[in-house]
Amino acid sequence: MYVTHLVAPKHGSTEAECEDAVAVLPGRPHDYMLREPLTAGVCDGATESALAKDWARLLSRAAAEYAMELPDVLAGGTAFEEFASSAVAQWEPWLVQYTQARHAEGRPLKWYEHTKLAEGAYATLLTVRVDPDSDSRADTTEPAWRWRAAALGDSCLFHLHDNRLVQAFPVAAVEEFGTTPDLFGSRNHDVALLARRTRFTEGRCRPGDRLLLMTDALAAWLLSAPDQDDAVSQLLEFAGPDDLDGFTNWLNGLRDCRQLRNDDVALVRIDFEGR
User: Fold this and answer.
1) Number of compact structural domains in the chain
2) Residues facing 25 on adjacent strands
3) How far is CA 7 from CA 20, 130, 244, 247, 269, in A?
4) Residue 205 is part of which domain span?
5) pTM for this one?
6) CA distances from 200 to 150, 213, 225 (A)
7) Which residues, other chains included, contact 234 with Cβ-Cβ below 8 Å and sequence gap of 6+?
8) How many other C-beta atoms are found inside a 10 Å radius of the C-beta of residue 141?
C-alpha cells in the first residue's frame, strides 16, 4: 500500500484556521510501501462549536491510534463505546492545558468563551483500518487486503476498482447530504448513543484498487459529478504532499465555478499495488 493525505482550508482561510483534520498511522512518507496494518482518522470540525479544529485533531488522532491497537473498535458494540469514552476523556485535560496557555500568554478566556466551551466541541468522524489479508499470502494467491470502516456523520469513504467507483460509505448519493450531520461531541459521555449512531462496514481490495477518504464538501462534489469517471481522474492527479499547491488551486477553480462548496477539505488516498 501507498498512502498520502492532503488538507486544504476553505478559500479565504489560513492553514491554522482549517477545521478538517487527518491522522494516519504508521507515519511513513507517501512513497514508502506499507506491508503492515494502516489506520486513518478523518474529522470535520463543526464551525459553530468552539475549538472545533482542536477537537478534530485530537479525535482523528485518537481514532487512528485506537484502531491500530484494537481492530475490534471497527466492529462496533462495546469496543467502539470504549474508544468513544477514551476519546472524550482526553478533552478535559487538553482544555486545562489550553486554558493555562492562554492565561500565560496574557489572553485569558473571556466570559463568552467559557460559555461556549461548556457546550463542547463537535466533529464528524471517519475511521478506517486496512490489513493484509492472511488468506492471500500464499504464492499462488493474488495479494489482497481487508478494510474496515466506521463513520459518524458525513465524511466519506470511496472504494475504487479500475479507477471506477464501486462503493460509497456512509453516504451513497449526493441527496443524502444534509445540513445537520451526526456529530461526535467532546463532552458526550453517552457513548452507547454514539455507538448506535455510528455506521460500520468492511470490504476487500485487490491490486489496482484504491480507497479515498474525504470530508463532506469534496465527497458531495464527487457524488454529484455528471461524469464520475472524469471526476475520479481529476482527483487522482494528486498523489503526494508536493501536490498540495496544485490541489488547492484545483479546489479554488471548482469553487470559482460553483461546483464545490467553499469549505475545508481533507483527502486521504490509499493505493493498493501488486507484488
Assistant:
1) 1
2) 39
3) 7, 21, 8, 9, 12
4) 2-271
5) 0.94
6) 4, 15, 26
7) 250
8) 10
Cell 456529530 sits on residue:
183
What's residue 275's pLDDT?
Answer: 58
CATH number of the domain within which 243 lies: 3.60.40.10
In angstroms, rounded to a whole number, what is the distance separating the alpha carbons of residues 122 and 23?
17
What's the length of the chain? Answer: 275
Residue 153: count other Cβ atoms within 10 Å of its Cβ.
25
Q: What pLDDT does residue 98 have?
A: 95
- Model pLDDT, residue 140: 46
- Find cell 495479494 and name the residue: 143
Residue ranges of the chain with per-residue pLDDT less than 70: 135-141, 275
- Determine the Cα–Cα distance for residues 187 and 35; give it in Å rounded to an integer: 37
